[in-house]
Amino acid sequence: MERILRGIMRYRVLDRASMVKQFQEVRDNPVPKAIFYTCMDSRMIPTRFTETSVGDMFVVRNAGNLIPHSEHFVDEMTSCEPAGLELSCIVNDIRHVIVCGHSDCKAMNLLYKLKSKEESNIEQRRISPLKSWLCTHGKTSLNKFLQMNGDFAKPMLFTAETPQRKFVAYIDPENKFCIEDKLSQVNTLQQLQNVASYGMLKKRLEKHDLHIHALWFDIYTGDIFYFSRRAKRFIIIDESTYECILAEIRRYYS
Predict the structure, then answer these.
(1) 148 CB contacts (<8 Å, ≥6 apart)?
(2) Virtual CA dihedral for 33, 34, 35, 40, nearest 10 degrees?
(3) Is residue 102 a known part of a binding site?
(4) Which residue, among 34, 38, 36, 35, has the nearest Cα to 187 in the 3D structure?
(5) Among candidates 93, 97, 141, 91, which has minimal Cα distance to 115?
(6) What is d(CA 165, CA 152) in angstroms, rounded to the nearest whole number?
(7) Residue 178 labeled ligand binder
(8) Which annotated residues bind Zn(2+) (predicted)?
(9) Which domains are delineated in the chain?
(10) What would the pLDDT profile of 198-250 be if each residue is shown by its tens digit?
(11) Quick check: 158 and 190 in contact, CB under 8 A?
(12) pLDDT tens digit string along 40-51?
């Protein structure tokens, strides 16, 4: 708390005036362009590595950047994640849903361990809210990952905006990342399928009026990857790839 209080005092001196000015500019007409789902990991600061500012996007964070599939809600959608989809996509009419995973994700590291029945049994889930959350909403990602049997030269198939629209993904074809990071990438792509499961988004997704994207952040290099459906893999966003990725986005997601 001492550090936070010192930070607030520093903010008052250095940043408060400029932020108040930005708040005033968007007060009566905020126009966020996206909703950004990412992990609650303290190393993830999405507004910093995307250079976004006040009013640019909604941000929802949880353990493992999970978006529960709609099948988990029978009568009511009692969860922050679908509520965020409604607030952003329905109430505020944004056009882009972004899911961003990352390397060395503690939630994904634990999810990988939960393949063990000893770690994921009902007794464990009752005493650990984190294990219960991951077993409930990360199980599809884990099962899809385990079906690969460690052979990531094979393609994976994900459902996209509609059940008829699917995309192929090759996970870490250059084998740069550890097994848990591969799971993190699979999990990030699975969330796109989960987003598309909500009936309230169906018409906009079918009309290409709402778009879903996947990013992945490498904690230790600071590199950010975009999942390119054209390339069928996560591609680093840098000076050599920017124009190509931008062209894909303008062609398919504008």
Answers:
(1) 154, 156, 171
(2) -100
(3) yes
(4) 38
(5) 141
(6) 22
(7) no
(8) 39, 41, 102, 105
(9) 31-252 (3.40.1050.10)
(10) 999 999 999 999 999 999 999 999 999 999 999 999 999 999 999 999 999 99
(11) yes
(12) 999 999 999 999
Residue 23: predicted pLDDT: 87
pTM, whole model, 2 decimals? 0.94
> Does 105 appear as a known binding residue?
yes
Length of the chain, in residues: 254
pLDDT score at 169: 97
Cβ neighbour number for residue 86 with a 10 Å cutoff: 14
